[in-house]
Amino acid sequence: MTSTTLELLQKYSVPGPRYTSYPTAPYFHTGFGEADWADALAAPAADRGLSLYVHIPFCDSLCYYCGCNMVATRDYGKTQPYLAMLEREMAATAQRVDPKRVVRQLHWGGGTPTYLHPDDIRRLMGMMRRHFTLAPDAEISCEVDPRELSHEHLAALREVGFNRLSFGVQDMDPDVQQAVNRIQSEFLIRQVLDWSRELGFSSINLDLIVGLPKQTVASFRRTLERVAVWAPDRLAVFAYAHVPWMKKHQKLINEADLPDSATRLGLQQAVNEMLGAAGYVNIGLDHFARPEDELVRAQQNKTLWRNFQGYTTHKHCDILAFGASSISQTLDVYMQNEKSLKRYEARVAATGFAVERGLKLGRDDQIRRDAITRVMCDLELDFAAFGREWDIAFGDYFADALADLRPLAVDGLVELAPDRIGVTPRGRLFLRNIGMCFDRYLKEAAAEQPRYSRTA
Ligand code: SF4
Questions:
Q1: Site to substitute for ligand 1 among 58, 66, 142, 148, most atoms within 8 A of C-beta
Q2: What phi, psi does 16 have (nearest 5°)?
């Protein structure tokens, strides 16, 4: 990449969604309530599988970069009422869902799911199996913090059926770890990976973050070298979002230590180059996988999908999410639970649900979501095929998006042909900007409130 890419990054560096949903979460509203959610759960959807998500918000300590909904506490007693409320929420939900619908995917995230003691890991999975039917080949995954993790934790996860793990590695440089208050040695990571492989987990993902304080291209290349030796099946490389006005604890990060845009570009280049050399395929925005991985195959077959958990092969599943702040998704509804632990527990105790806000999607929302997802997953969009699927004349329906894409085509980020849009290799760094061209809500916000318009 040349300095032109750096100029483009600066030009297109505007606040923009990651499109794990469309419409995006800021458009969920409190007019959507429990009755709406109960209707959505009961809607006939026999052909759609289920994907269950459980949010465990507890962590032992605070990582300064954290963007998750979490509670740092040493008081393990807090987990007990929370687990009890998770069971109530699952029971209330399962009562309304067609019992013939089978769980194809199950995921625990956080926070730190392995904050739970091994016996509570067994208890939580026991309640999930009591209320839902898991397919024998279900993909069952858990986010794992290598720190304070024992062999017993991993053995308990394997015993109850987990077959995939995702480890938070982020960066192995001691200065970076110090700057973000997350110290984890190479020995520790090596050990938990060895345990996981011995226990027979079939897929291991590592999470890395670029853009952390004190990160340099040279130091991150050393992290990438170690990662290549550890040979995970997948990697997610997220860009750190510094939003201290939203996440107050990020003020603990010294802004002078954050990498500048040239360094951030260098970091991204190092990721692409070194993971490519190690045999990984870049899937869209932030995921990498081995060529034989089902995510790569799904991208080739154009069945890849994007949801709150990132890229997935489970397009035809509704997500039922449990726990504080978790977001559920059916074909035409998004629903988010109460974010505060206290309110979540009080509401579930009262009614079995804790709906904070949500959104019912209209047809235009669904069409635009499909277009954004196709671009972010397939890296191309065929006008005729898309038009047939939605019964629209693509060029007329998306005249606004095509006009907005023209400057991106001039900058070499997309190819605009009469019958298709293709994302160029350079454009892969700008997938969010390309998706934004299809986003009706952003356009309306820009028209009403000029402060949201593009800053370029
Ligand atoms: S372990 Fe994860 S959720 Fe907990 S503070 Fe660190 S980054 Fe946030």
A1: 66
A2: -155, 150
